[in-house]
TrEMBL record:
The chain crosses the membrane at residues 26-44. Pfam families: DUF4142. Residues 77-207 form the DUF4142 domain. This is DUF4142 domain-containing protein. Residues 1-23 are annotated as: Disordered. It comes from Peterkaempfera bronchialis. Keywords: Membrane, Transmembrane, Transmembrane helix.
């Protein structure tokens, strides 16, 4: 008598070959979880878009294009905006300090005080936001901004009033337009907060600069009709989280260059000039922290 092998259904065969329904469900759950972890990391590393690279510092290690962050997408233009907010303080704080000692005009004194207060606040916010977004920031002004400082440093009295007011009013007008564009289009909550703060402070600075009575509005109107020139190269940045407060850098610059006479207002707004070496021991702007491309260029 021949023994028959019990028939196994196709369902039973599949169940044994795959370890049963329980194991199958577990494998599917693991696969979904693995994709959920890997995909965001890959998007962050590679960038979430194909936008062209903007003027960003090279030290932050972020990829080109749009970067996905916990606060929303971060575009190249938005990275440039955060960097330029930082750069504005790097030359406008020294400008505000010179406004206290290079002239006797009380309206220029007042405008300088607004620069000191406004850019101290903006810089604190920019440093915090950059660290949260993984951005490196420069510790030195651009070459163009260094030239602005040299022009101001060489002037005294009424000449200083005109140079100070015209340079700063022109530059504030340019950044004011950039703020509106970023504020309108950004999907990043931190960038939006910085744009809100910058909008309020820049408008305040425009107002007090115009109150000096020496702004040449014809020149500003004529410049606004000209096509934009080539983009100014941004200075190198330092590692993420290592950018120094702009008040320290501006005070160190003043101590080293002698641009602010004894008894002037410090970058911290204390009303007295710190003693030489109090901040950075004579370190000039751009030399307080080693950048990825070497020591920064000093403002002289």
């Amino acid at each position: 008598m021949r023994m028959r092998t019990p028939h196994r259904s196709s369902t039973d065969a599949r169940g044994q070959s795959r370890g049963g329904p329980g194991q199958s469900r577990l494998l599917r759950m693991l696969a979904v979880g693995l994709v959920a972890v890997i995909v965001p990391l890959w998007v962050y590393k590679q960038g979430g878009g194909t936008a062209p690279a903007a003027q960003t510092v090279a030290s932050d290690g972020l990829p080109g294009g749009i970067v996905n962050t916990a606060f929303g997408p971060l575009t190249p233009d938005e990275r440039t905006f955060v960097t330029k907010v930082r750069l504005a303080g790097l030359w406008e704080l020294p400008s505000g300090m010179m406004a206290q000692t290079h002239t006797t005009n009380p309206t220029v004194h007042e405008a300088g005080k607004h620069l000191l207060d406004g850019h101290k606040k903006l810089d604190e916010q920019a440093l915090k936001i950059a660290a949260q977004l993984g951005m490196g920031l420069p510790n030195e002004p651009s070459q163009q901004q260094q030239d602005f400082l040299r022009q101001e440093q060489a002037a005294q009295g009424a000449d200083f009033d005109r140079v100070f007011a015209q340079l700063l009013r022109t530059q504030h007008g340019l950044i004011f337009q950039a703020i509106a564009k970023i504020r309108n289009s950004t999907r990043n909550t931190l960038v939006r907060q910085l744009a809100d703060s910058a909008n309020t402070i820049v408008l305040d600075h425009i107002t007090v600069l115009e109150k000096t009575g020496v702004v040449d509005f014809d020149s500003i109107a004529a410049a606004s009709t000209q096509p934009p020139g080539p983009a100014t190269a941004l200075p190198p940045g330092v590692a993420v989280g290592q950018a120094l407060p702009v008040t320290q850098l501006a005070t160190a610059w003043a101590n080293t260059t002698g641009a602010v006479a004894s008894g002037g207002t410090s970058a911290g707004g204390q009303g007295t000039q710190p003693q030489a070496g109090e901040v950075g021991q004579g370190v000039q702007i751009g030399q307080g922290v080693q950048s990825t491309s070497g020591a920064g260029t000093a403002v002289r």
